Structures are given as structure tokens and as C-alpha cells.
Batch of 2 targets.
Target 1
Amino acid sequence: MTDTVTYKIENRIAWVSFNRPEKRNCMNPALNRRMTEVLDELEFNDDVGVLVLTGEGTAWTAGMDLKEYFRETQAKGLGAIRQAQRESYGWWRKLRWFQKPTIAMVNGWCFGGGYGPLYSCDLAIASEDAKFGLSEINWGILPGGGATKVVTDLMPMRDAMYHALTGESIDARKAAAWSLINEAVPADQLKTRVLEIANVLLEKNPVALKATKDAVRRVNEMTYDNAEDYLVRAQEAAHYYDAEGSKEGIKQFIDDKTYKPGLGAYAVKPQK
Ligand code: ACO
């Protein structure tokens, strides 16, 4: 089970990989359990400032394992089905609210259940030759496990409907045009581009990053007034964890004149 997910930490970036390349990194129960452990190992590790999720081989992930996650689990009955769902949805939820910013580095195929972790990552950058599809309709089910919610949250309704009903896969440029991902880049520039973004994030105040990523996800479901109130309280809560950060940010601009907030981040005290 342990090798279904691999990771290494380099310069405060955790590079986490789906690691079942011979099965196109489809998610079986063992992978889902291991990913939960890996996220737990990394979330409050002070050596990690950003998490990147990628895949070994030609796939990011070919979605749920149709044999082990669906057929074999269904054969064991409802308890096993619910257990498998809790494990997969559980790590996607953990990733959605992860303490550190997260980037999906989509190196290849991304299907069906893969939209769960894709959405969980705060940002998504894909290789131009990656392909995305809600293939559920092609084997006779609806896009569950949140996948329908993912596309209706991210895409215009007509595109989401076409995508879900036809099961046609789209390339990364179209995925970017439909807002499923941030950017499509040539395969040989994928890691460089992700590294560039990760390094931008590593320069920011980590308390403000977590408050911001949560706010972007939360306010989407709120009325304007509720969002306004939530943001006041979220900032005050962030102040509890870092009372000095923004004061230092103002000081370095107004008094020290060492940077301009419109053009970049203040010098955050180095993290451990
Ligand atoms: N579940 C189980 N096994 C899978 C899956 C999957 N989702 N995806 C790939 N595999 C297995 C194949 O059965 C094959 O196994 P084998 O070597 O024992 O025969 C191996 O991985 C390699 O797959 P190929 O199909 O030979 O690889 P190829 O590169 O030609 O095609 C592709 C890749 C297009 C991703 C293809 O494997 C595919 O269509 N996979 C299914 C994608 C899908 O619909 N996923 C489910 C989405 S719905 C959901 O997640 C709820």
C-alpha cells in the first residue's frame, strides 16, 4: 500500500505523486488510504510550505479504480461501499482545506473521480497534452463523488452539461478556457511553471495564505452581507495566529520603503 503514493520534499515544496502508473494512477482503496496518511504527514510539517500533486507516468489519475473501488467493493456490500466512499471523499476534503496552498500539476489523463482532487487543489496547471473527461456516462453512471458539483462550480452550465452528457474528453487548452484549470503549458515547461508559482506562494505570509484560500472557497456560497461579515471575522481570527505580520508589511512599505505591496510581497520572517 505504501508505494501507491510517493512524495519528496525539496526547498519547502512537497511533491506528492499518484504512483500506480501501470494502472494510470486510478484510485483504489489502498491509494486512498495511503493518500490520507501522506496528507497527515505533510500538513503541519514545518518543512513544507506548498504541496504539489502530480502523477507518475502518463496519467495524473484515470479516476476511480473500476475494478477495486467499484466492482470488488460493491461485491462486499453497502458497508464496504460507504467505507470506500468515506476514504476517497475524506482525503479530497482534507486536501480542499489543507493548511498549505496546493497545486495540481496535471501531467496526463484526468478522468471522473480525478475531478475531486483536481478541485481540491487550489490551483491547477496542466501539460498541453493532458486530457480531461467525465467518462462516467461512457460506462453507465452519473458523475458522482462530487464530480458534477466540480464542473458546475467551475464551468459555465452549457459547457458542464455538454461535458457530462457526451463523455468526450477535452484537451488542457479547452480545460483552461472552461476554467477547469488555470493554465495549459507545453509539457516540457510544466514543472518549471509550477515551480515558479510555488515559489511565489512561498514568499507570502502563510497565515494570510490559509485565510485567503479558505475565504475564496467559503464566500462563494454566501450572500454579500454574510461574506462581508465572514471576512472581517476570518481576518480577526488570522490575527490571533499572526498579530505582527501585516504590521510588518505596512512598516516595510511606509517606513522602510523596502518594497511596494502592489508589486510583490514584504519580506516574511523565514519559516522554520
Ligand atoms: N480503473 C481500473 N483500471 C484502470 C483504470 C480505471 N479507472 N484506468 C486504467 N486502468 C488499467 C487498465 O485496465 C489497464 O490494466 P491492465 O494493464 O491490467 O490491462 C491499465 O490500467 C492501463 O490502461 P490502458 O487502458 O491500457 O492505458 P491507455 O494508456 O491505453 O489508456 C486511459 C489510458 C484512456 C486513461 C484508459 O485507461 C481509460 O479509459 N481508463 C478509464 C478512465 C475512466 O473512465 N475512469 C473512470 C472515471 S469515472 C470515476 O472515476 C467515478
Target 2
Amino acid sequence: MKALIPAAGLGSRFLPVTRVIPKEMLPIGAKPALELIVEEAKAAGAEEIVIVISPGKELIREYFKDDPSISFELQTEQKGLGHAVFCAAERFRDEKECVLVLLGDALVSGCQASSEMVAMSKANNGAGVIGLERVPEEMVSRYGIVKLDDSDSKAPQITDIVEKPSVEEAPSDMAVAGRYLLDPQIFKLLADQKTGYGGEIQLTDAIRRLLEKKKVLGYVYPGKRHDIGNPKGYFKTLEAMNVNG
Ligand code: G1P
């Protein structure tokens, strides 16, 4: 399996430190957050990992330079998460299996999120899987929000997905939480994806089109997602991952 880690965002919610240190390289104990994410991808079976960085984040390339399983692609324009993922499309051209996508500013504690998603996919004929977390109603407008089918199965199917909906428009309170296992058709869909929320090319919008072609299941984490992209989220992450004491 191959994995893709978008780590090209500007880190504007964590200035000024992100002028020189990419948010993904902030320490969680002695390791940069991104190393924990790479470990998670490898534990889930990723043999090759492509990290998408932006100019100015060369520190990431420098840090991983001795790991032959990791390579890099550059996103030179800030056009959104979907565009960052598309920047690595060529690297997945011949891929048949689902690609594991791990957002570089999201850590998950309390479970082996990616490994559990891979197991769910295997148990369901290679279906796509998206990691989900229930969020309070007033927070739905900060996330991609999914609609699940009515079955009470442990592997519910995602029937719709919307990027950052208003409370009124949100199809549920189940938020996309930083981990995706996606059919490689996603790259073809991203190639002609129109801009969406915030004038950016959204991964969520391409996934919405993927749902018409491929089964994608929802995996509600038993653990918790942490956003290290801002100071408050970062300090909460340190607390939750118990690296303070
Ligand atoms: C991105 C995705 C969103 C998802 C979130 C957390 O948003 O676009 O769908 O819910 O990550 O995984 P961002 O946090 O980059 O605004």
C-alpha cells in the first residue's frame, strides 16, 4: 500500500513560529508530529509514503532524507487540500489499491486509526474508508461532514459528504477526521474538480463524486483526533498524548 501525507499548508494559525518551523515538525515529546504520522502509516502497511510540501518547508525533506520509503512532491500554489493531494497524482498513476491519506496536522490518539481502517477495508472487499469523529453541532461548519446510511452496521456506508456546511445544511454531526483510505480514482476526479468552499479545490468535493462510483465506508474512531495546527490544539494534543509527565 502507498500513503500520501499532505503537509503543504501555510501554518497561518500558528504564526510566528511557522515562519521557520512547519507545524507538522512541532515536537510531540522528542519526535516531530509528522514522524508519528509516518509511523502510523507504516504500521498500517504503507511501503511507500509521498509527502506533499510547499516551498519553505524543506526542513521536512531534510528530516526524512535517510528514509528511502519517503519521497516528496511540491505544491507551489496554495489552492486547497484537494489540490495538494492532486500534486502527488503522478506518483499514484498505476495504483490499483486504495491510497491511505493522512493529514499532516492531525494526530489520532487512543486507537491505531489507519491500521483499523485498512482492516475494515480488507473485510469489505477493498472498499474506501474515511475516519470519522462525532463533533458538537456548533462545530460542524469547521469540518467535512458525512451522511451515513441507515443501517446500524459496524461498517456504515457514506452516502453524502459536504465540506464545512452550516448547522442547517449539515447532513449529520459526523466529521471527517484526518484519515482517508481512497480509491486511486480520486486523482482523476481531482484533475477536473471545480473550486468549492473558500474558493479552494476541496478533497471533500472530489470524494462526493467518488461516492457515485465506489463504496466508501465510515469508521468512527474509538480514539480522538487532535489538530496540531494552532497553539490551543497543539497543547491539548501534548496533554492527551501524555508527553508532559
Ligand atoms: C480538512 C478537510 C475537512 C476535514 C478536516 C479535519 O479541513 O477539508 O473536510 O474535516 O481537514 O480532518 P481543514 O482543517 O484543512 O480546514
